[in-house]
Task: inverse folding
């Protein structure tokens, strides 16, 4: 249930995030997507634990913990930057912003740093968390042994994680272009 619920809320958060016109709402929906991925990591860890696959369990739990830590740092940077953007521009609507990098270079840099971390771009820690979840869902997590986690569950989890990773990458970097580059 944790894996399915996490993946479902991740998809809902990702779709709502990329369609939101309000910068703060976009970040909030992206947080829901992150919570979904964290819950999916817990689900993968529990599946590995109950299946007797300690490597898959460790990778799933470690990915969930890294999701929490990464989200705390990257989203804090992005929300604080969004507050500065709102204070300077007077709006939260993305279509009314643009070209703010010249007036807010430090804010733009901090937003970029948070966005790249949230988007799981290497070498930042967001990439490590996504990679751990993908490893946990793969059949290689058992250290070369056949995983006790059913193949259909692993394939479905891998597909959802790959799609969510792509959407998260787009959703984490797109606001930077809309707000700061115009």
Result:
């Amino acid at each position: 249930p944790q894996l399915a619920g996490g993946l479902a809320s991740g998809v809902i958060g990702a779709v709502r995030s990329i369609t939101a016109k309000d910068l703060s709402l976009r970040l909030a929906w992206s947080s829901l997507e992150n919570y979904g991925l964290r819950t999916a990591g817990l689900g993968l860890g529990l599946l590995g634990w109950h299946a007797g696959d300690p490597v898959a369990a460790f990778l799933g739990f470690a990915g969930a913990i890294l999701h929490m830590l990464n989200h705390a740092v990257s989203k804090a940077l992005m929300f604080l930057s969004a507050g500065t953007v709102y204070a300077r521009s007077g709006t939260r609507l993305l279509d009314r912003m643009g070209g703010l990098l010249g007036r807010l270079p430090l804010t733009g840099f901090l937003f970029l740093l948070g966005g790249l971390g949230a988007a799981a771009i290497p070498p930042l820690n967001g990439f490590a968390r996504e990679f751990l979840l993908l490893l946990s869902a793969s059949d290689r997590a058992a250290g070369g042994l056949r995983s006790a986690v059913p193949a259909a569950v692993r394939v479905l989890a891998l597909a959802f994680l790959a799609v969510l990773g792509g959407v998260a990458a787009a959703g984490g970097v797109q606001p930077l272009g809309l707000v700061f580059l115009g």
Summary: The radius of gyration is 17 Å. Residues 116 and 172 are 6 Å apart (CA to CA). The chain has six helices and no strands. The longest helix spans residues 54-89.
